[in-house]
Automatic annotation (TrEMBL):
InterPro entries, per the entry: Bact_response_regulator, CheY-like_superfamily, Sig_transdc_resp-reg_receiver
SUPFAM superfamilies in the record: CheY-like
Pfam name, any one: Response_reg
Signal sequence annotation: none
Organism of origin: Methanospirillum hungatei JF-1 (strain ATCC 27890 / DSM 864 / NBRC 100397 / JF-1)
Domain Response regulatory: 2-117
UniProt-listed PROSITE patterns: RESPONSE_REGULATORY
Alphabetized SMART domains for the sequence: REC
Record-given protein name: Response regulator receiver domain protein (CheY-like)
Keyword flag Phosphoprotein: yes
Highest taxon listed in the record's lineage: Archaea
Gene3D superfamilies in alphabetical order: 3.40.50.2300
Biological processes, Gene Ontology terms: phosphorelay signal transduction system
């Protein structure tokens, strides 16, 4: 179970991992592109997907759409930069549970994750 992080940027992927691990959350996988994220989602069945909105192969909106075809209850949180509000709105309409804005502020990130999963070690199914 745990959290799957899908982000093409090494720095952002590792920062998310570090913040989440230090708070006590389990990381089930790290994906460097959208296609890999979809494959890992189906293999790992994580409690939450932290999904970058802008990636070079396929964007986060398409990854979200494809995950939710087979897993309509999948918990997905979008990771976005300022100025991508219209895409975040679309993602929310497509079922994303929330979003966090880069650059990441640990308290904001952890608060958003806790709203979806609860405190570390108490993941909701």
């Amino acid at each position: 179970m745990g959290i799957l992080i899908v982000d093409d940027t090494d720095f952002d992927r590792n920062l998310l991992r570090s913040i989440l691990l230090s708070a006590g959350y389990e990381i089930s996988g790290l994906a460097t592109c959208g296609e890999e994220g979809i494959r890992q989602y189906h293999a790992l069945k994580p409690n939450l997907v932290m999904l970058d909105l802008i990636m070079p192969d396929i964007n986060g909106i398409e990854v979200l759409r494809r995950i939710r075809i087979d897993a309509p209850d999948a918990k997905v949180m979008m990771c976005t930069s300022v100025g991508e509000e219209s895409m975040v709105d679309l993602a929310r309409r497509m079922g994303a549970r929330g979003y966090v804005v880069k650059p990441y502020i640990a308290d904001n990130l952890l608060g958003a994750v806790q709203k979806i999963l609860g405190p570390p070690g108490k993941s909701r199914t």
